[in-house]
Specification:
The structure is a single chain. By secondary structure, the chain is of the alpha/beta class. The protein is built from 9 helices and 12 strands. It has a 6-stranded mixed beta sheet with strand order 8-7-6-9-10-11, sandwiched between helices. The protein has a 4-stranded antiparallel beta sheet with strand order 5-1-2-12, with helices on one face. Strands 3-4 form a two-stranded antiparallel ribbon.
Length: 308
């Protein structure tokens, strides 16, 4: 997303707002008070109140559904519309108005990103690996002291963790050159497992950045299952599709691209698809991803109470 766009994130408690069999005994009044406020359409919860509510509601006692909605708000020229508040939005479910439980337009928060890199046989060449590193370098430059990245690599099987969470993104990139390469491409499986490495943290900014040049030819999971896994924890998937000029020309002549399923995964999780041919493409992708992560928490997700 460019600087002329802004993302605001808000949440609505939909479905069964007041089906609390028994609030946790140690905090019954606090939980009941917050739930009653939401159900009555009162003042939206603050970040701390939302997190407290999620922390205090065991799933066996509470049946509450949260839908996290990320909205990009611009004028006709694509410029950001500043100063938006909860009162400027309405959430409808089958035509019925639902109250907003939480609203946030904060900017500049830290983020967590899983870098998911394809090391299958099609990437078994110095030029391919250098292209991958070059595509990720602009993103690595955006990682600040409070941000965290994790590197996962995949081929014919699920991803292997190459580095744990760290803010030393440039060092992480250097390890890519040493990863063994070869085999088929189990892309959907890798996405499902990568999503599982991220916690359900609805008010934190996190994402998966997938870098690949090819098709999925070895997964047991489907693209729909990969999308569902990302949606469950509210994680957008950004895809960097590596290509060269010859491939771009060939795909234009053919009228389609074998990477179209990846575009669908990005779109349906609230992420973006980028075709990376040049350094300029990589820079533009990094800028858009940075703006998205600094201004939003990700794609819609459905949370029922809290995992126990």
């Amino acid at each position: 997303m460019t600087a002329t766009r802004r993302t605001v994130l808000f949440a609505a408690l939909v479905a069964t707002l007041a089906t609390v069999a028994a609030a946790p005994p140690e905090h019954p009044r606090e939980v009941r008070s917050l739930l009653d406020r939401v159900a009555s359409g009162g003042k939206p919860l603050s970040d701390s109140e939302l997190q407290a509510l999620l922390d205090l509601m065991p799933p066996q006692e509470v049946d509450v559904s949260l839908v996290m909605v990320s909205a990009v708000v611009t004028d006709r020229r694509g410029r950001a519309v500043p100063g938006l508040a909860a009162r400027d939005f309405r959430v409808l479910e089958e035509g019925e108005l639902r109250p907003l439980a939480w609203f946030s337009e904060e900017q500049g928060r830290s983020f967590r990103v899983v870098l998911l890199v394809d090391v299958s046989g099609s990437m078994d060449g110095d030029a391919q690996i250098e292209g991958m590193v070059a595509a990720l370098r602009p993103i690595a430059r955006e990682v600040g002291i409070a941000d965290r990245v994790k590197l996962l690599a995949f081929a014919g099987r699920g991803p292997v963790e190459i580095s744990d969470w760290t803010n030393r993104s440039e060092s992480v990139l250097e390890t890519i050159r040493d990863i063994p390469r070869g085999g088929r491409t189990a892309l959907a499986d890798a996405l499902v497992m990568a999503a599982g490495t991220l916690p359900k943290a609805p008010i934190e900014r996190q994402a998966i950045v997938l870098v690949t040049d090819g098709l999925d030819n070895a997964s047991h999971s489907t693209a729909a299952e990969a999308i569902d896994a990302a949606r469950r924890i509210g994680v957008p998937v950004y895809v960097l599709g590596l290509a060269d000029e010859a491939r771009v020309i060939q795909e234009k002549r053919a009228g389609n691209s074998p990477l179209m399923p990846l575009r669908a995964i990005a779109d349906q999780t609230g992420g973006r698809y980028f075709q990376i041919v040049s350094a300029e493409d990589a820079d533009a992708a990094a800028r858009r991803i940075r703006e998205d992560l600094r201004h939003s928490t990700g794609s819609p997700s459905r949370v029922r109470g809290r995992d126990g």
